[in-house]
Amino acid sequence: MSAPSPLAARGLRKSFGGVDAVTEFTVEVTPGIVTGLIGPNGAGKTTIFNMLSGRIKPDAGDVWFYGELVTGKPMHWLSRRGLGRSFQEVRLFPSLTVLENAALYAQGRVGNSLALQFATPVASFRENRRALKAAQTALDFVGLGEIAGARADSLAYAEQKLLSVARLLAMGAEVFLLDEPASGLDKHGIEVVISTIARLVEAGKTVVLIEHNLDVVRAACDRIVFLDQGSVRAEGTAEEVFSRTELATIYFGA
Q1: For residue 241, is it within any domain?
Q2: What does pLDDT average to over the chain?
Q3: pLDDT tens profile 104-126
Q4: pLDDT in tens, 175-188
Q5: How many structural domains comprise the chain?
Q6: What's the chain look like in SS3?
Q7: Which CATH number does the domain housing residue 145 bear?
């Protein structure tokens, strides 16, 4: 019997104010590969991420995480079980250090009050120590270990993007939903992000990403799911999907 998919969805639908954002979305993520969701603006990509991660509930359809039905489970519940989700806008705690930012997520994996953990260091010494160790390991993985003591608001934008990945690693994520991980980066920053994604896969993680930069999609993704008007129009490798001229017409509008 084969192992269950790390993440799967069947027939997801979502409307906002009578407008259909997602009309029919079904996917089964393959373990240990990078799956890219692409499509024109308004195709429903972010809404799908929000449903998969538990940020919003679907109007219909179901989500499974490693074979467990998790439809409607809240985001914090899923994150503690290993589903990590980043956002296009990097959401750091600017006045905390790089290490503290990652450690907050490491503490969240056991469901403790994050504020209480830092407010009562004596009572939570053991947990703080474990969280700091997990955070440092995650920072070393993404190449930020040497600046762990710097304030988060001193980081370059590419470093902020890497910190957002490190926080998910510190949390214990096995499946990563990365929303526009290369957006706003220069060529070097993009190369670092692509390399980091490849290393996540080498470490046994499963990655699903939304990305508008098609060069990044080609370089990082093993499988592509092309979306239009909230439903899947095509699936396959980059070569298979990008060779279809009708999809290029949908994507570029010409």
Answers
A1: yes
A2: 91
A3: 999 855 444 555 555 555 446 67
A4: 999 999 999 999 99
A5: 1
A6: CCCCCCEEEEEEEEEECCEEEEEEEEEECCCCCEEEEECCCCCCHHHHHHHHCCCCCCCEEEEEECCEECCCCCHHHHHHCCEEECCCCCCCCCCCEHHHHHHHHHHHCCCCCHHHHHHCCCCCHHHHHHHHHHHHHHHHHHCCHHHCCCEHHHCCHHHHHHHHHHHHHHHCCCEEEEECCCCCCCHHHHHHHHHHHHHHHHCCCEEEEECCCHHHHHHHCCEEEEEECCEEEEEECHHHHHCCHHHHHHHHCC
A7: 3.40.50.300
